[in-house]
Design goal:
CATH class of the largest domain: Alpha Beta
Distance between the termini: 27 Å
CATH superfamily of the largest domain: Response regulator
Main location: nucleus
Number of helices: 6
Radius of gyration: 17 Å
GO molecular function: RNA polymerase II CTD heptapeptide repeat phosphatase activity
Shape: globular
Family: Belongs to the SSU72 phosphatase family.
Strand content: 15-25%
Number of domains: 2
Strand order of the largest sheet: 2-1-5-6-7
Protein name: RNA polymerase II subunit A C-terminal domain phosphatase SSU72
Order of helices and strands: EHEEEHHEHEHHE
Largest sheet: 5 strands, mixed
Helix content: 40-55%
Subcellular location: Nucleus
Length: 193
């Protein structure tokens, strides 16, 4: 069953956290897209101060082949090749949120800095339809395990929101319940298109 809720999941590089959630939500029948807010796409490199930096135009396939060539063993061991392989099955390349003009009902961000960038971008746009969009931040650490746990939490949240009769009036209460249950705090704001 396809959900009518238009959902976007946003992290910094559109690689790990947003793609894990994109994967799980699309398997559950949600109408979902994923994005990054960074100026470039960054992936771990041979040392903390030597990340692999790509343009948002670079496909997941190109990144995969580049890292395979650079150091197959390292990028297999740290899970980056596995992640890129999953990503390229979902969509061709990472997308930058600031370049997308499509409308969403719900935007989920994976860290506070990304939440701020999304809200700032939405507020700087010309308001055309006055259609509300709920932006919710779920803090997720940027590693494989946390991305998976975070994606299930995001999925559960989307399923609950989808089942509300009146999203505008019920969402605050629903988020409060979720905060208590998951022992996390969620930032939430409403912007308008």
């Amino acid at each position: 069953m396809q959900s009518s809720l238009r959902v976007a999941v946003v992290c910094s590089s559109n690689q790990n956290r947003s793609m894990e959630a994109h994967n799980i939500l699309s398997k559950r029948g949600f109408n979902v897209r994923s994005f990054g807010t960074g100026t470039h796409v960054k992936l771990p490199g041979p040392a903390p101060d030597k990340p692999n930096v790509y343009d948002f135009k670079t496909t997941y396939d190109q990144m995969y082949n580049d890292l395979l060539r650079k150091d197959k063993e390292l990028y297999t061991q740290n899970g980056i090749l596995h992640m890129l392989d999953r990503n390229r099955r979902i969509k061709p390349r990472p997308e930058r949120f600031q370049n997308c003009k499509d409308l969403f009902d719900l935007i989920l961000t994976c860290e506070e800095r990304v939440y701020d960038q999304v809200v700032e971008d939405l507020n700087s746009r010309e308001q055309e339809t006055c259609q509300p969009v709920h932006v919710i931040n779920v803090d997720i650490q940027d590693n494989h395990e946390e991305a998976t746990l975070g994606a299930f939490l995001i999925c559960e949240l989307c399923q609950c929101i989808q089942h509300t009769e009146d999203m505008e009036n019920e969402i605050d209460e629903l988020l409060q319940e979720f905060e208590e249950k998951s022992n996390r705090t969620f930032l939430h704001t409403v912007c308008f298109y």
